Amino acid sequence: MSLVIAMDGPSGSGKSSASKGVARALGLRYLDTGAMYRAMTWWMLEHGVDVEDGEAVAARAGEAALVSGTDPNRPTIEADGTDVSGPIRTREVTNAVSAVSRVPAVRERMVALQREIIGAGGIVVEGRDIGTVVAPDAPVKVYLTASEAARAARRAKDLAADPGASVEVTQAEQARRDELDSTRKASPLAKAADAHEIDSTELSLDEVIEAVVRLAKEQY
Ligand code: C5P
Description:
- ATP binds at residues 9-17.
- By secondary structure, the protein is of the alpha/beta class.
- It contains nine helices and eight strands.
- The chain binds cytidine-5'-monophosphate (C5P).
- Residues 11, 33-34, 37-38, 97-98, 101, 127-129, 177, 181 line the site of cytidine-5'-monophosphate.
């Protein structure tokens, strides 16, 4: 398999910025699998599906046509031909996504789509189950973490976009999402046994990117 870099970790660990930076530095494609689960969630909400009803979600999991752009400078996601890159970041979608992503039928479909996009490789893939389930043979696996405080501070920056949510509320919502993602039955957030753990709490973004690029270069 040519180069696949699996980047897993909880929300707020800095995965997205680091993954895009690594893809740019190495001239690779980039896939945000979280955006795919968010787009599926957006589609369910848009079609009036009760996201807490796993059977209802499963019954419609095959309907949404999702297309992911893989340019790290301009990652996009389309659902049924509509660019939903903006709408998938709303609080409504963020708070519903864990309920949708725990449904096995949704995960099966997402994993199949993700493997198609990964294809022969040359890509940085970020998510929760990339090193464990989607690409267990990826030659480079990273598990990115950060302290609660650092993750909350990063989230506080995102808050500017949503003045309705306080830091406390956002932190509580993030903790709930991480709890659901880590304890669900179907491919929970987990560190692969052969993943390199990087704690980004004390590192700048460039330092995280450098550390991952170094790991990749050791492989080739
Ligand atoms: O990374 P992001 O915060 O955008 O992910 C949104 C949600 O999508 C996560 O909270 C999780 O429920 C789900 N997800 C997942 N598996 C992945 C990526 C994301 O279950 N590989």
